Queue: 2 jobs
Job 1
Amino acid sequence: MNEGTLLIFSAPSGAGKTTLAKMFMEKYPNIQDSVSYTTRARRGIEVEGRDYFFVGIDKFNEMISAGDFLEYATIHGNLYGTSFKFIDDSIKSGKDVLLVIDPQGVSQITERFKGRSIKVFIVAPVDELRKRLLSRAEESIDEINIRLENGKKEICFMCDYDYLVVNDKLDDAFDKVKSIYMAEKLKIKYMNDDDIYKYVGV
Ligand code: 5GP
């Protein structure tokens, strides 16, 4: 059985990674969505186990000590982490997984997944970013300014990624993300002998 691919989207807050991820999951429903653990408070419309697993700091720290996280990071004062077991089981069983994470976590993605991952960094023009953050009205002005400042720092992480997608027009950005995924899946290294013989008609 061929292992699956770990597709990673990261972006400064408001650059559109969540929207692109939703579009991507709709287009490719067989891709698994990884649900992270977080110590952040649940927002009104969020559902436990669908958006996040919401846990206390003690539980999160226990999970760190137990080595339960593939990666974790402190973001805007809260902890967020990805379950190692979920990713490892999915990839082993040949499923592709989409991970939407803060760039701090990407450097922790260990050798185990290096050959199996595609890392995509998504950016948007800064004026556009501010507009989007203001219009979604989920954070105060102070929080928005913190997010914009953090976004500038996150740009430094860009060199850890394989691809850069500028999201000034959503449809164009979506096309680019789909192309990246398709090109990756067509790599011969992901095909097993049976597939190759089938395709070349031997
Ligand atoms: P929010 O609080 O707005 O849902 O998420 C804040 C940031 O945390 C977003 O950039 C989101 O992608 C990131 N994030 C969510 N889950 C994880 C995770 O498991 N690991 C890391 N490194 N970042 C995460």
Job 2
Amino acid sequence: MAIQELTKQVSRRRTFAIISHPDAGKTTLTEKLLLFGGAIREAGSIKGRKAKSYARSDWMEIEKQRGISVTSSVLQFSYEDFCVNILDTPGHEDFSEDTYRTLTAADSAVMLIDAAKGVEPQTIKLFQVCKRRGIPIFTFINKLDRQSKDPFELLDEISDVLGIRTYPINWPVGMGKDFKGIFDRRNLRFEKFDRANMEDFDTFKVSGPEDPQWQSWVEPDQWEQMKNDIELLDGAGDAFSPEDVLQGELSPVFFGSAVANFGVRPFLETYLKLSPSPVARNSTAGVVEPTLDKFSGFIFKIQANMNPAHRDRIAFLRICSGRFERGMAVTHVRTGRSIRLAQPQQFLAQDRTIVEEAYAGDIIGIHDPGAFRIGDTLCEGQQFEFEGIPQFSPEHFAKIEQKDTMKYKQFQKGISELVEEGVMQLFQPAQGPAETILGVVGPLQLEVLQHRLRGEYGVEITMTGLPYTSAFWMKGDEASLRQLQLFDCRMVKDMHGTPVGLFKNEWTVQRVRDQVKGLELSETAPR
Ligand code: G4P
């Protein structure tokens, strides 16, 4: 394919994930973005998929009809000349390691914050994963139509808690019932909030905060406050630097109200201008540019159908270079086999459709007969592998045993297949009799596991919760590892035999860090 066409296709693509704490408004924001793109016709269409609207037991039923969550894992829409992929990161009880891994497929992230609540725990976790990758992070502060924290306090919280500098692209005038709108600092525009006319907002050009027109829109004290705020931001705030945004060091901040569709379009338009198109990725053959004319991609998520009658698994592949064409033959690098991608699927809002062509930044779903693992590379031409997807530290642990010892084989098969799929991490005691210890990021994953072992492998298990809350991969000499016996931590090993310490609390972790010299503790497994 002509390089010009490839470059054009890559440069019009944006792939991002929205990171937020439950209830911050992710579903609402996603919906508004899809409405702009014409991918859905009415608000409320994606509401039904929300996990929190179901009781816990129903969740299993939903998972059985996996179609629902499969289609909502990636949403693609077009806006003007852009082709946008939004990756879903479940924020509710179904939060799992999957959520973290999905972030490895994104080129940027949108951090959504509830203006009344500020930075919340789940946002911190997801933010840290993005920060580790150094991807650009855009912030949307939502629900300004409600009484909120002071905007400066919110910015301070972002920089103190998350350690990232911010640059407010726009600034709110008033909040809650006195919310008047947002001032676009760079384009010198005022977008006026109107509660009576929620879908269509007027925008006015201004010469700056001193423009006399403000008098007709805002109260005198609000105008005064706004002038002071902007002066403070211009004088003492961080300067705007597109390079720092791309380096993930400066987060552009937008204020608005997703439910009122206010501030969403300016956010989307500025985001599209400032965010990166698909970036080059590291591989065993060096850096792979998205415009390389050979197709390549990696699998970041595998989702199995919970319905035992249809044991199909879908592997989600993030395309990193070249042009994907339906039916093309590629190499599955880990096994060296050639495979034909015959029925690739793409996820357009609610529907799965067969994809005919796709480019770097796009996500396609491919049928997995059980051949793929998380992190596998598929490519055309010269063979290489993309950098591995890190494993993330589990926070919930359990020991499991099969009830019927005659089913040992099925039990082993089930565990090893589910570990491959990335449902959980497996540990063995470092010494003593064999045990099956599992670690997961979200507690619901343990229930899913039990359900799936029963449904798909016919194995009943007993599960005993373990009191640990974190796992650390250890690197150190024998002497330092031996010293760990003095602490309240359980030594196990992961699937590759790497020593891992399971801890009950942060305090013990800190004591180990302080007192055991020459030992490195890492929250993620070495690659
Ligand atoms: P989530 O996916 O991040 O969990 O959040 P979701 O969009 O479902 O939003 C959570 C709640 O916050 C919803 O209310 C939603 O309507 C509300 N919300 C979202 N954006 C805004 C906003 O800008 N302003 C205000 N005031 N509320 C907002 P709910 O009562 O849980 O659901 P619903 O009955 O409104 O659907």
